[in-house]
Amino acid sequence: MHKSRLKLRLCGKILTIVMLVNYLCFPVFGEQPTVPLPILNESGTRYYSDLEIDLLIDDLTEAAKEAIENAAAEAARAAFLESIEREAAAYREGQQWRLEAEAHLQALKHTKKAGVKNIILAVVIGVLGGLIVGITISN
C-alpha cells in the first residue's frame, strides 16, 4: 500500500508540473481572437482583459477537475488491485494450511492403523504366550 501511495504522489506531482508547463509556456487558443491583441505599453507589459482571465481560469479549473478525477480513478484502481493481491495471498495461505491439514490427517490415519495392528499383535502374542506357559506348567 505504501508503494501505491508513493506512486500516486509521484504521478500527481508529474501531472501538476506538466499542466503548469503546458499552460504557462504554450498558450493554446480555442478559436482565433476576433479583436486584435492590445499593443504593449511603454513598459513592455501586456494587459489582459477580464474575458481572457475568466477563460484562463475556466480552462485551468476544467484541467484541474480532470486531473483530480484521473488521480482518484488511479487511486481507486491501485486500492482495488492491492485488495485483490491481499485476497490472493490469503487464499494461497489457506490452501497451504489445507494441504498441511490433509497431510497430518493422512499421517494420523496411518499411525492409527499401525497402532491397531500392534495392539492385535500384542494380544495374539500374549494369548499364545499364556497358552504356552499354561501348557508347559501343567505338564
Q: What can you see in these coordinates?
A:
The protein has 139 residues and is an all-alpha fold. The protein has one domain (2-28, 49-138). The chain is built from two helices and no strands. The protein is rod-shaped, with a radius of gyration of 42 Å.
Question: Keywords for this structure?
Answer:
single chain, 139 residues, mainly alpha
Stretches where pLDDT is under 50 for at least 5 consecutive residues are none
Write down how many β-strands occur, each being a DSSP E stretch of 2 or more residues: 0
Beta-strand percentage range: under 5%
Count of discrete structural domains: 1
Average residue pLDDT: 83
Instruction: Round the Cα radius of gyration to an integer and report it.
Output: 42 Å
| Helix percentage range | over 70%
**Total of DSSP H or I helical runs spanning 4+ residues:** 2
Biggest beta-sheet profile: none
Structural class of the secondary elements?
A: mainly alpha
C-alpha geometry: rod-shaped
Instruction: Please provide the ordered H/E string of secondary-structure elements.
Output: HH
**Cα separation of the termini:** 87 Å
How would the blueprint of this fold be written?
Elements: H1 2-25, H2 50-138
